[in-house]
Write a structure and sequence with these properties.
The protein has 166 residues and is an alpha+beta fold. It has helices spanning 6-35, 53-96, 99-110, 117-120, 128-141, 159-165; strands at residues 41-43, 50-52, 114-116, 144-149, 152-157.
């Protein structure tokens, strides 16, 4: 098993934790069984041993942890593949942008994906008219969204673009 991937390390950690919890619960159940009466008991059909709810608790906890770790392991690969695909698509998208468009997108990324259009005009070599045209092109492509706020627009990177580039 390749333990270098972070997801597999987490799964192995959960398995180790469930084994430790099982041992702790088993030992505590053994000692507590010596001190309590016969309340809340289930009889075993295979013999005369009687299980209490407290005896079954370690098995329930361990089974829950193993089930959760297994589901995480199965789903982590799919999520990683989707994120890698999204990043590749974003890299391809950035290659198709012009130099000025790329400057605007990078400036938006530096400001957490949202800033007034007036501040975008402070990018070296871009006039107000040029920024307006670039934002209009990016908006038409679905890369940015604009909201009217008073006399200026607030430009926001689209949610998909933020997720892909972050």
């Amino acid at each position: 098993m390749d333990v270098t991937r972070p997801g597999r390390r987490i799964v192995l950690g959960i398995f180790a934790l469930s084994a430790l919890l099982f041992v702790v619960f088993a030992v505590s159940s053994y000692y507590s069984a010596q001190n309590r009466g016969q309340e809340m008991q289930f009889s075993c059909p295979l013999g005369t041993h009687v299980f209490t709810v407290y005896d079954l608790m370690p098995l329930i906890v361990m089974a829950s942890l193993v089930f959760g770790a297994g589901m995480y392991y199965l789903m982590a690969g799919r999520v990683e593949a989707r994120e890698m695909s999204m990043r590749r698509n974003m890299d391809i998208m950035l290659r198709f942008l012009g130099d000025e468009e790329r400057k605007v997108v990078k400036r938006l990324l530096e400001s957490n994906g949202r800033m007034p259009q007036a501040e975008l005009t402070r990018i070296q070599g871009l006039s107000k008219v040029r920024v307006h045209r670039i934002v209009k092109k990016l908006s038409a492509r679905g890369i940015v969204e604009t909201e009217k706020h008073g006399n200026t627009n607030v430009v926001t990177l689209a949610k998909e673009v933020m997720e892909g580039l972050a």
